[in-house]
Amino acid sequence: MNILQKKTGHFVFIDGNLEMHTYRDYDEVPDVSQFTNVIAFLPDIPYPPHTIEEHEIIMQWNEEFKKVLEKMDGD
Predict the structure, then answer these.
(1) pTM (2 decimals)?
(2) Which end of the chain is more exposed for a tag (fewer CB within 10 A), N or C?
């Protein structure tokens, strides 16, 4: 289940040519396996205190970041 409805934030990657790519919407990020480094992965998180649903969203972002790192490693 994907509960990430709002996918804005600050996402910065570097490709194999050392060019920086910056995105404000995670849906605009292409296949991350083309990048070599993550410079910033900062989704817009609501200010605390958080509801249970917001905690679930934060955990979903953590899982998404792990997936990005795995894809960049070629796994």
Answers:
(1) 0.86
(2) N
